[in-house]
User: Fold this.
Amino acid sequence: MSATTSPATASIQQAPSRPELLGKEDWWAIWIGLGLLAAAVILFSSGSSIGWLALAPAKWHALPQLGAQLAAHAVQYLALFLLWAVILGVAVAALGIPLSEFLPSFLFIYIGSIAIFALGQWDKADHYNLEPPLVALVLGLAIANTTRLPRWLESGFRVEFYIKTGIVLLGATLPFTLILWAGPVAVVQAAIVSLATFGTIFFVGKRLGLDRRLAATLGAGGAICGVSGSIAIAGAVGAKKEHAPIAISLVILWAIVFIFALPLASRALHLPTGVAGAWIGTSEFADAAGLAAAQTYSDYAGHVAGIPGHADAAINAYTLMKVIGRDIWIGIWALILSIVATTRWESTGIEGRAGAGEVWRRFPKFVIGFLIASLVVTAIAHGYDYASYTKSLVPKLVGPVKNLRTWAFIFCFFSIGLTTRFADFAKAGSKPFYAFTAGVVVNVVLGFVLSTQVFASFWTALGQ
Assistant:
């Protein structure tokens, strides 16, 4: 099996005998993603929610508790399977994939994804950084490298299709309104650090001889929003299937280190809670890990002498910097890098740059779906402040869509693991680590200077 494309992924790129709008997976990802969003919006507008169907396992402590929870929601999990099986089945049938192979394979993927998602809801999962996409990748790798799966089963391992659908749904969870709510300081600081971090990782990666698509995927993982950034940019630039897992592995590695290092360093320096939260938000790579670090420092306030500011300020500053200030830029980065990739990085067999028609032909159309989804939720969020958005829109509209997005990402990374051999990672060598770590140094140092010196008055006042 090629390290670049599995037989399953290769066969779904386009059904040549069909019109483009029905014969390319990019367009089907848009139809599915925007269709699910439309259903969610219609139900929200009528005072209801798609939440009953777009469920996710709840937090649990002991296995008997998890078993009771899954049993109580068995009908919902069955309904969700039928929903995914129907909409994905229609798409793959139109793309020429036999349903007799796809449906049993997808059932295998879905059952595995339930277990993966449930593990991510364990009350110790954040402590061990067991994010569902990473767990899905590891489990898939374990199965693929210890078991010989039937070749027909690969019909359901639709890596690129799942990731593109998930990215379209990702747009609905990141309305552009969040930029305004973050305020100019958070946006400016996030932009400075993101550009510097991406530039460092990409430049060092290129100097080390890395594929530009891998360098861009690594840079996005460090500069924007960790796992989601790696996923989105890998899809936007047409990265090889092993590029996103490499980036995510490095994101998780450094995220785990900073869960402990950043709160301890902030404590040693007696940083105000708002300043520490901003530094953590600027420096952390994974949302869950950063929240854990910010919560740790929040717990110090009032319990450790010499730490000024309210406890909530660490969480609030972290949210402004990481969840809003950095994560919101994912769509813009995906759009820009997809254009760069199609006009400058890809070979067309003709000397010079690709023309407008060639750019459009190779342009990743699902990025358009991401932007449309974001604009739809932006329009709905118009008139809400951040507090009412969090209280009203998130539980009934954005949260359920986020659950659907997470399912799609789990399907994707489980499939990546199931179609990848450890030799694929070995081929990457140590160069990605060196490139990413160079960005880590810039990220942490620049974030510290901006949080504690340049914008210190803003973040300190946030904690008063």
